Batch of 4 targets.
Target 1
Amino acid sequence: MQTEAELTKPAIRTIFERERCRASALFAHWEHPFTALSFNRARRSYGHAHADGRIVLSNTFVGTSATTDLEDTIRHELAHLIAGIRFKHGPRWQQVAASLGARPRASGRSESSELHEKMSDAPFTLIAVMRDGEERAMRRVFRRARRYVDYRYGKRGQRYHIGGDFIERFEYLDHRE
Ligand SMILES: [Zn+2]
């Protein structure tokens, strides 16, 4: 198990700014000129574009490594501002979204299981107990996995680590309790 770079809010804002500049270079006229980026706690939607030019992203992205999904969501929402929100996901939006490099109808779907689980109300948190006893929360998950339940550092087989620090065992925190 390798940890990947986790997205922070400043990192998300940097990626957003990069995508917005790209979009501005490609499209001079925006039906809704961009005004501001903010975050909400939505768990069912990754992003939303408003007629007043605001784009709201779910803070679900924070702490994940779902950069591809983030970029896709940003392009999706920017395309709404450029094409006009009233046109929804019609041909006009599709044309703009394709120019920006968004996967069609990407919002609401995800290739990142990590993000998918976080978006849902997954009942468990997988916790890695390090060899020195430190506990690190890994991610929200739907079910306990045998390979983590049965894993012990001393046992034969694969040894999991986080950035070179070996994991002694795993535990699950049950949020339904
Ligand atoms: Zn949309």
Note: The two ends are 27 Å apart (CA to CA).
Target 2
Amino acid sequence: MKNPIEKYEKLLGFLPGFLIRWLEGVLKKNPRFKAMIEEEDRKVAQMLERSLKPYHSTFKRHHALPEGGIERERILEEIRAMQELERPKWEDGYVSGAIYHGDPLHIDFLNRVYALQSQSNPLHSDLFPSATKFEAEIVSMVAGFSGRGDQAPGVCGTVTSGGTESILLAMKVYRDRARRTKGVRRPEVILSTTAHAAFDKAADYFGIKLIKIPVNQHFVLEPSRVEARVNSRTIAIVGSAPAFPHGVIDPIDQLSGIARRNGVGFHTDACLGGFVLPFAEQVGFSVPIVDFRLPGVTSMSIDTHKYGFAAKGTSVVLYRDEELRREQYFTATEWPGGLYFSPTLMGSRPGALSATCWASLLSVGAEGYRKMARKLLEAGSFLKTEAAKIPGIRVLGDPLWILAFASDEVDIYEVMDRMGERGWNLNGLHHPPCFHIALTLRHLEPGVLARFVADLAWSVAEARRSPGKSGGMAPVYGMASSLPFRGLVADLLKKTLDAIYRV
Ligand SMILES: Cc1ncc(COP(=O)(O)O)c(C=O)c1O
């Protein structure tokens, strides 16, 4: 039987946001509603316990420090055992994104570099000049294939901990610059609804209002709709290359032109595409230019820990010139602890991760990235062609190597559940309901793509043959995506985070 929320869901969807929030507030005080939510919470908690804590029954839990310390070899054994359980899934190419290279020789190489540098901290540049060398050279290498040249000779940047930090910093830079130079007190950033949630985080942290423009039916952001929203509070416009959900690239050329004409910043989020698009272009693919060769682009985020094949924990944020980068820096001149200065969000930083990033760039080289880009785009094209042959499934938009699948005939989340039965770990998305796969080198191994296509055809057929029987997360995805009370969904997500931190 449907619960009352599900019963009235469609009707609630027509109400304006403020009324739904008000209703949600009223209902939360109602004892019957509260009891129903508690019951749902209990069910979700049980499900979370099973999926987030699979080791409860197999490994000893440590609630507090062991009194005497445990032998190193025993600790290593335990970590090895967990790694053995986790590795096959990503190693055999069943996972979307997440592990972008994954070849054992590459991993072993990065591990050896890490072992040599595990004590390094770029905050202590006097102690670890190697770390400063690695970071300066990482930035220079990435700038080198991101449009630094005659038209943009001053491209510079910093190494950060990941795409989110690169984005947070760029948004802080635009906020501070607009406040300093134009006195903007209520800053706004214009971007697509498909831009990464890291921009929402930046807005939340730094008091920026996001003006979100819905994409059209091809999942493309229309420049005229962006231009119409530029005003005196606009500090920057953002474009994704590509956007995470559907792998579609925003029209960076036109969007950055709008930013330039209006004297505001333009950030290309190339966390996913920064290492793919320039090299795809070099091997002759017709891909759009998204970097500093476009005069309006003033900053970029490019993730070394994704298609740069570095270990997790590094990204690069680039700026058109040093003046902009200086807006990112933090200094404290009166602290009794001494003169303090730091380029990014963190204080102490893992120099070993910068070392592995530097080593990855050097060992793969331009030729390696060109090869990877060619293969990824060929794989994307193969998958699009093969998916088109499966009745009942369609690819959203016109993506390159990150493909989102939707259906007008079956419940797409049930298809995803069925893919899960076959071992796949894919990303469930919403607005509209779909799931995606971000192709990586793991999917280029022999037989992996063919297996994906066969499993997709089987999963669609199963979802059609026995709807409502997938027995997985489909109902949760369905409800979380369509529930009008977004506050309840946010509460659920926070409870999930609580569950993660329960021993
Ligand atoms: C387009 C895009 N931007 C930003 C990010 C955030 O990167 P991270 O998870 O490294 O913080 C991602 C992550 O997938 C992304 O796909």
Note: The pocket of pyridoxal-5'-phosphate is lined by residues 162-164, 167, 196, 198, 240, 244, 269, 271-272, 303, 315 (CB under 6 Å).
Target 3
Amino acid sequence: MVSHLRDKEEEESISDEQSLYLFNTWWRQRGWGRPVRIVDAEGVFLKEGSGRKILDFSSQLMCSNLGHKNRSVIEAIAAQVKSVPFMSPAFALEVRANAAKSLSEILPRGIDKLLFSTSGSEANEAALGIVRHFQRSRGAYKIISRYASYHGSTAGAISCTGDPRRLGAEPAGKIPGVVFAPDCYCYRCPFRLSYPECDVACAEYVRYLVENEGNVAGMIVEPIVGTNGVIVPVDEYLPRLKRIAEEFSLVFVADEVMAGWGRTGTWFSFEHWGVVPDIITTAKGSTGAYAPLGITAVRRDIAEEAENTGFTHGHTYEAHPISLAAVPAVISEFRRMDLLNHVRRLGGYMKRRLEELKEAHPSVGDVRGKGLFWALELTKDRSRRLPFNTRADKAKGLQLMADRIASEMYRWGVYQHAWINHLVIAPPLIITESEIDIGIEALDKALRISDQNMAA
Ligand SMILES: Cc1ncc(COP(=O)(O)O)c(C=O)c1O
């Protein structure tokens, strides 16, 4: 058999076996088809089985912040695999102390009692448990979240998720006591108001919610909403939410799973507004995405509540040495490459290039973001801000315009994450201007599809 035919057959059989044996998560199972086989990845590029190079314009699931195959992080993980690859969390290991110490250098002072799990969902699940445990003497148990949010797939985290992924868990898989507040989403303000005349009604409504609900224990927010639109709040929003939390003795949880780890030009996104959360959860970029890790960082006095009452939570693979080995290496790679400054600089370039696309394409309704974290939201009628697709379309499994654009970009050699009516542009933070241009060029070509499908 000619060798390239054999290669193609092997390629297809690997893809077919994957779709036969693995669940295709968050997706209808039928129609997964043949996932593309990747054989290598380096820097900001993936390499397909065919040898074609693909620019990663979304850091996979907005997690490969250091790019692919960062040598220092890989070496740190490999050294740990060779020394102590696993030991029960009950034992002390140097790798655990080192990870905690290096995290304490980038976390706000005093938010440094840590639980290490293996995902963002688990980091949030633990945070919710801690909030409720801490507030139980007040009888408070309710958690405020928002509709434009994703907090994970475990019971508590999916119950706090506002996006349609929650619907699949209803009613049986949900925990009681989650209330949703309005989003600080100026492009589609839930109150149909405009900033600044609105006086940030979305934050003020939270006060009303807390007063009228009663028994509210805490709130969980993505300071910059990720998958659900890279929504950057107006400047007053987070400080005002924090003030409301303090006024009513609520625990304020910042979910930095996606927006953390330099994505917006600071270690964590809440830093842009000088707000200090009570609990910080994070995951994704913490290991460069080379090993699974969830981190729940808790304010000391909240954590001390457990000194007498116990801490009824834990996992077999909690504080896993292999994952923790990556953390100090990731932090020192950020410092060596001066990545936070790089992200701030390139963020300005990305903004300019995306705004040019908005000028050129009538189907671009909004571009927004910070650092290297951007959304491009589509519209089929700019003056009425009509979306091409809604959450209901997603739930029905219809073909979505944003997905069509992402597929077209892939044809042009760029991997792009799409969600309902927008694209999430979040390349590895090591990207250069000329690599950004490759992504923008593919986007420019793909947006012709939405331009050609505007409302009459
Ligand atoms: C903001 C946010 N929180 C939590 C999660 C859940 O993280 P994981 O998928 O690691 O469980 C995600 C995942 O995308 C996320 O974006």
Note: The mean pLDDT is 95.
Target 4
Amino acid sequence: MTRYERTAWGRRYESADGAERELWLLSVNSVKEDRPIAEIAEAAAVTATGIPTQAAYQDIHRPVPGNTRTPRRVRVVGIGCGSGVHAVLADWDFTETLRQFEEHAKPVLGRVVENDVLNPGSTCTGCEGLVGCELPPRVPGLLGVPGPRRPRKRRSVSATDLRTHARCPAQYHLTRGLHLASDEPESEAIRRGRAVDNWLNEQHRQRSCHGALPTDDLPGLSAAERQSAFSMLAQHRRVCPLDGLRAGEQVCVQRRLAAYDPELDVVLIADPDLLYTRSGGWIWHETKTAGHRLWEGRDLMEAYPQLAFAALMMSAGVPGGDPRRSRIELEVLYEDGARCEEIDPWDPDTLADARRIIAGLAGPWAVDETYAPAAGDHCAGCAVAKHCVAGRAYLEAR
Ligand SMILES: [Zn+2]
């Protein structure tokens, strides 16, 4: 028999007479704005019909003492812990709550229960079934570093995580471990890069980026940034890898790839900008925007450790495909040009370089338990600077 538990997590409140219940859903900075109605309806339904419980690792939820009377009214409230703003997401009487559940949540729950497709990713870190699961593919030793001296919680890691940790361990911990990054606009280069990525992703989902260039749908950019982003998009269209791709080939935009190192107990995560098949092989395509030709002359994988990470993943069989036809591509967009490079992850020298670069980044990351700040010019524009004493002191002393 399969037992299903429906739970809702948050701050729980009820009136003294038990007639009203509230569930507060906390988010770190501002109120989360994109909760689907199915999620809100389900949260309200569990608040209305559920009982207080406690969960333990590898156990079912067990009832704990508390009120089990059915409430007359239920509210679901979103709270932004950083902004102090709240939003009432649902404020329904008991009957209306059940009606909303029937209409919005129940069909979704039905699909969830029927769907047995595995979807490996960073949530594997909290999954009790990972050890017995056929996915994600096992890649023991891929990071090339010894395990921690003592057991620690399973973690996920991406190339961006490793690079952030190498720049500043505190920034890594505050953004990735504690999720404290603010929504404040970051540096111009990051904003512009993100706008270009978003537009390209949108176009590539339709397999072509030759439609009209965006006019005002590059949100958050100044006029000068927009001009520069337009120039980069125009450069991309000259070299778009999807041009001439046969109709039967697969194209995946930002497909999440995962692999699992059982020795380190780490889930490896990558989101290639573009992943597509070509004659039986997979092409892992990354696009970068750059203001200057800074990296030229440097080793490509040193400049972009993401490529080294991709080489290791690909050579370990992720995402699969015919090795002789699978490649990693880098496209760098400037305002006045574009440069495309190709990396063969089966070339022994390339692979050795990739191992050295990733092990160099992963070594300090794997054993770090203190995440000391490494203040520097990168503190300007850091999304967690306001939580970092050392970073603020550095910026004030500049
Ligand atoms: Zn394109």
Note: The first strand starts at residue 11 and ends at 14.
